[in-house]
């Protein structure tokens, strides 16, 4: 079963995203911040990470920079969720960006794309 780690500090958003992915048949794990996500990733390598950018303790981009340095996790596809897209000057460590608010169909489409090896900026 395909597993997805959802990292989102807003509980309602976290639960909606997780529920939609579970309804599609994915095994879903959730974390509320980047630090907890890093701890979870040391225990379990998901097939995809869906992560908010603006979070307390450790932002999504900060967590992603650390994830890319972890052995075995450098190739895990990451979809960022954000009201503001990441600055274009930042390294392309992610495979897709979902601009909040996004439609649930956009989430499912982004997951399918990154799992098949495609990338998208998600801003369409």
UniProtKB/TrEMBL annotation:
The keyword Phosphoprotein appears for this protein: yes
UniProt keyword Coiled coil, yes or no: no
UniProt keyword list: Phosphoprotein
Domain Response regulatory: 2-111
InterPro entries: Bact_response_regulator, CheY-like_superfamily, Sig_transdc_resp-reg_receiver
Protein name: Response regulator
Organism: Archangium minus
């Amino acid at each position: 079963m395909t597993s997805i780690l959802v990292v989102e500090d807003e509980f309602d958003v976290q639960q909606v995203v997780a529920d939609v992915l579970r309804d599609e048949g994915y095994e879903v794990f959730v974390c509320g911040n980047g630090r907890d996500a890093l701890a979870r990733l040391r225990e379990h390598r998901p097939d995809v990470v869906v992560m908010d950018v603006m979070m307390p303790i450790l932002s999504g981009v900060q967590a992603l920079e650390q994830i890319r340095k972890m052995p075995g996790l450098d190739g895990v596809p990451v979809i960022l969720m954000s009201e503001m897209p990441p600055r274009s000057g930042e390294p392309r460590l992610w495979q897709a960006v979902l601009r909040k608010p996004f439609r649930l169909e956009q989430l499912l489409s982004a997951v399918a794309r990154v799992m098949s090896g495609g990338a998208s900026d998600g801003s369409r």
